[in-house]
């Protein structure tokens, strides 16, 4: 990254056009606010700024210019997808990725078994192997 160039916060998100997530599980959290750009929504989601939960995704209403930050994503139980022409869904890649990049220290995905079907060892465990 060059001097004076800012990284686009949308690079950390996967966009799905014309889709909104509806929470069936009422314990899942959502916060909304008027914002002019998806970049502003992404930056706030990445920093969890002003949110009482970890932001895993956001939906941007192009008509009302309203950002909906979500404590869940399309892989979360208790969530259903809804086609909606007004919305674009942006999901944090770290939470929907099914592969490990590098050493995997930042992996937040849902895969917890090896390719051969063996249960993965927890990061905070030294059993059955030391790190």
Automatic annotation (TrEMBL):
Domain of life of the source: Eukaryota
Task: Name the UniProt key words of this record, in alphabetical order.
Answer: Disulfide bond, Kringle
Record's keyword annotation contains Disulfide bond: yes
The keyword Amino-acid biosynthesis is assigned to this record: no
Q: Where is the Kringle domain?
A: 98-131
Q: Which PROSITE patterns match?
A: KRINGLE_2, PAN
Q: Where does the Apple domain lie?
A: 8-94
One GO cellular component term: extracellular space
> GO MF terms on file?
endopeptidase activity; signaling receptor binding
Name of the protein: Hepatocyte growth factor
Q: Which organism is it from?
A: Mesitornis unicolor
